[in-house]
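Notebook, bench 3.
Goal today: get a predicted structure for Tubulin monoglycylase TTLL3-like from Haplochromis burtoni so we can plan the truncation constructs. The sequence was checked against the plasmid map this morning, with no discrepancies at the termini. Length recorded as 602 residues. Pasting the sequence as submitted so the record is complete.
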Amino acid sequence: HLKTSHLPPSSGVCRNFVSLPALDLDRLREARVVVDKAVKMHKVFSIQGRYPVIREGLRARGWVERCMVYSKRRVRRHQSSRNRTDSNYAMCSDRDDGELEALHNVMSRLVWNEMVYFYWTNRRKAINTKNLHKEQITNHFSKAGNLTTKTGLCLNLRKLHWFDSADPDTFFPRCYRLAALDERHAFIDDYRRTACTSLLKYIVEKDQYVQGERISHTIQAVKGMTFSHISIYYSALKVCEDFLQSLEHSDIDTNLETQQTPAQEWAEFLDSYYLVVHGGAEIDSSDYLVIHCKAMLQRMKIVNPQLEIEGIHNIWIIKPGAKSRGRGIKCANRLDQILDLVKGDPKLIKENKWVVQKYLERPFLIHDTKFDVRQWFLVTDWNPLTVWFYKKCYLRFSTQPYTLDSMDSSVHLCNNSIQKSLRPLLQRHRSIPVDNMWSVDQFKTFLCTKDREAQWDTVVVPGMKRALIYALQTAQDLIESRKNTFELYGADFMLDRDLHPWLLEINSSPTMAPSTPVTAHLCAAVQEDTLRVVLDRRVKRTANTGDFQLIYKKVRNSFPFVMLYVYLNGDNDGVLQMSFFIFRQLCWRLHHTVRTNHDCLL
C-alpha cells in the first residue's frame, strides 16, 4: 500500500489530488517502482507554468514530477472558494486525463519530500539559485536582465570593443537611454545630424527610384507650397562636415562656442526639414547641389554603417526598457514628440528605463508587409561561454501594409501579442496567413521566387549568429555563471533590403504557446531539443541535439595559471599581453561601476 508519510496534508493540495479515480493495485505497484528508480537516479522535477512538452519529455526520460509549491496569496487568487489552513499548496497539471494523470499525481505525492533536481519555471525569480545545491538544474541564470532588458543590451553593446573588433553599429540600431542626461544630449545630437543626412538623401533621391517607386510618389507634395531656402542644405552639409572633422580630430583647435549651433537655429532648421521631408513641400535644387550632397553622403557612409537603412523620415522607436510583448512601444519622427513621450511616465524616468532606438525605415518586405524574425538560442554556460543556435525560426507579420505615412502599431510592430487582436487588411496578399506567421521554410520558398534563396545561409544566418555571440560576450561578466544552469532565449531580428540581419532585442522566457500552426510545431520541437542538449548530452556526449547547433564555446581562462605557464616558458610577451588583458577587464568593470552609480545619482 502507499506510504502516507509521503503525502502532504489534504487541505494543502490542488484539485488534482482530490477525489482521484480508483487505481488498479498493479498500476500502483508499477508507479512505486518508477518512483523508487527516479529517486535513486535523482530524477525528480518541478515545473511552473504551462509547459506540457517539457513535462511529457521529462516523464518519457523516467523523471517524476513533484508539484510546484505556491504561496498562500496565489492560493487565494486561484482557489478563493476553498478555505485553507496550509501556507502552501501544490499544482502539477490542470489536465484531467483520468487514470493516467491520476497515476502521475499519486507519483508526485510519493516524491513530496524528495529533493527536486530539475526546475523549469517561467520566471527567473521563481527560484532562488543561491539556495540550490550544485547538482540541481534550473533554466534561468541570475542577473540575466543585463542581456534581456532593452537598457541592458543598449549599455552592454557599447563595450564590445573590449571583446572584439566588431562595430555594434553594423548589427544593432543606435540606441540611447533617455533618462541618462548625457545620453539624452547624445540622442538629440544624433537626431539633428540624422535630419541633416536625411535632407541630403532627399535631395539626391527625390527623382530616383527607391525599391521600384519614385520618392515623389511616396511623399505627397503640398499644393501651392514651394520651399526655396537653399541655406538649409548648406547648413546640413556644414553639420556633416563638422561631424567628420570631429571624428578625425581636425576640430581640436576650434573654439567649441563657435562650433556649436544655437538652439534657435536648430529649431528653425528642423521646422524646415519637417516642411520638406514630412510635409512634402516642393523644393528648388540644382545639379551643383545634388553633386555636393552625393559626395557628402559617400563620406558619411564610411563612418555610419546605418546610413542606408535610416531612410529620410528620421523615425525613432521609443521603448520602455524592461517591458516585453511590445507593451508601451511607440514610433515618432519629430524630436519634440519623442521627448514629450518620455516625460509622460515619471516612474520610468526615475528608474532609467526609457530607451530610444533608430527605426529601420527601409526593411526587406514580403508583399509590401513588414515582418521580423524570432530566433531561439540556448546558453548552457557563461564560463566558459557556451552558445547553441537553433536552426529553425519563424517570421511574424504586421497586419497592415508597410507605410511611413502612419506611425500606428499595426504597421510597425510585429509582436504577436499586439497583432493577434487586429484584423488584417482585406487587400493584403493572400499568401500571408491570417495568423500572421511563416515558418523559415516558407520564407526560403519566397526567397527562391526572388532568386535570393542562397542568401539565407550566406547572409542571414551568419549575421544572426555573429550578432548573438557579440551580445553574449558583452554580458558574460555581468551574469552570474552557475553550473547546472541553462537558459533558452528568443532574439528578434529585422532584415534590411540586402537581407542583412539587425538585432532588435533579446527575450528571456520566450513564449511557447501554440498560438498558430507554425508555433505549435516549432515551439514543441525547440522544447524537446532543449532537453536533448541539457539532459541527454550529460549521459552521452554524442547524443542527438535536434536542431540545436553549437556555435560558440570559449576556452576557459584561469589568469594566474596561464600567466605562470607563459612566464615559466620564457614568453615575456605573453605575460605582457595577459597582463594587459586583465588590466583592460578591470578598467571596464571600474568604468561600469562608476557609470552605474553616476546614472543612479542622476
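The two ends are 66 Å apart (CA to CA). Residues 47 and 434 are 33 Å apart (CA to CA).
Flagging this for group meeting.
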